[in-house]
């Protein structure tokens, strides 16, 4: 599994069925090479600052690809595209766990089953800045200091920390 930058003319030569992620007005282009058996897939996006994310499932059967506001999954056994999903916000992070794949965008958490179907989708109370797996839980850090704990099997949340909010006292007088 290798991602290689290409130019627009090379991207335009890729068969449409092999263009995994496309942007309406792309400025960046890449080839995802999955080897001789599965071949190559094209990816295009707009930003000069954002790089595509690649994650392989722990069992090696699915490659997850995301960039900007697009997410895709490919089966590494037969090359079948399992998922192509536009996102409402920019992708922040992906984690592949034994039974699920967790994806956070700036404003949403998505949990996918092993074969790419959506198990759970939830709007977040603040902008997400990162996620990690600790034991059997997902720990999601939010911009204003909150930390959410999620059990990905039951999709239940716990709020671990509420940020300190400074309250103004009424004027005396």
Outline the fold blueprint:
Blueprint: E1 2-6, H1 8-12, E2 19-21, E3 28-33, H2 35-38, E4 40-45, E5 53-56, E6 62-67, E7 70-75, E8 81-86, E9 91-96, E10 101-105, E11 108-112, E12 118-123, E13 128-134, E14 137-142, E15 147-151, E16 156-161
Parallel strand pairs: 2-4
Antiparallel strand pairs: 1-3, 3-4, 5-6, 6-7, 7-8, 9-10, 10-11, 11-12, 13-14, 14-15, 15-16
Question: What's this model, at a glance?
Answer:
By secondary structure, the protein is mainly β. The protein is 5% helix and 51% strand. The protein is globular.
Q: Could you please describe the fold and organization of this structure?
A:
By secondary structure, the protein is mostly beta strands. It is built from two helices and 16 strands. It has helices at residues 8-12, 35-38, and strands spanning 2-6, 19-21, 28-33, 40-45, 53-56, 62-67, 70-75, 81-86, 91-96, 101-105, 108-112, 118-123, 128-134, 137-142, 147-151, 156-161. The protein has a four-stranded mixed β-sheet with strand order 1-3-4-2. A four-stranded antiparallel β-sheet has the order 5-6-7-8, with no helix packed on it. The longest helix is centred in the first third of the chain and has 5 residues, at 8-12. It is globular and about 50 Å long. The N and C termini lie far apart (70 Å).
Instruction: Name the average pLDDT.
Output: 90
Number of β-strand runs = 16
State the secondary-structure class: mainly beta
Which sequence of SSEs, written as H and E, runs from N to C?
EHEEHEEEEEEEEEEEEE
Number of helices: 2
The biggest beta sheet is recorded as:
4 strands, mixed
Into which percentage range does the β-strand content fall? Answer: over 45%
Helix content: under 10%
Distance between the termini: 70 Å
Question: Largest beta sheet: what is the strand line-up?
Answer: 1-3-4-2
Overall geometry: globular
* Whole-angstrom Rg: 19 Å
Which regions contain 5 or more consecutive residues with pLDDT less than 50?
164-173
């Amino acid at each position: 599994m290798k991602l290689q930058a290409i130019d627009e003319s090379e991207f335009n030569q890729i068969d449409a069925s092999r263009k995994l992620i496309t942007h309406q007005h792309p400025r960046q282009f890449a080839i995802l090479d999955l080897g001789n058996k599965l071949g190559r897939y094209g990816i295009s996006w707009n930003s000069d600052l954002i790089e595509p994310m690649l994650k392989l499932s722990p069992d090696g059967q699915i490659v997850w690809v995301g960039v900007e506001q697009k997410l895709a999954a490919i089966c590494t056994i037969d090359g079948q595209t399992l998922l192509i999903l536009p996102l409402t916000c920019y992708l922040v992070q992906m984690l592949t766990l034994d039974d699920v794949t967790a994806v956070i965008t700036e404003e949403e958490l998505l949990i996918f089953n092993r074969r790419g179907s959506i198990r759970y989708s939830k709007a977040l109370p603040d902008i997400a800045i990162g996620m990690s797996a600790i034991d059997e839980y997902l720990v999601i850090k939010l911009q204003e200091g909150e930390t959410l704990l999620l059990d990905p099997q039951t999709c239940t949340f716990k709020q671990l920390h509420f940020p300190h909010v400074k309250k103004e006292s009424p004027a005396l007088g």
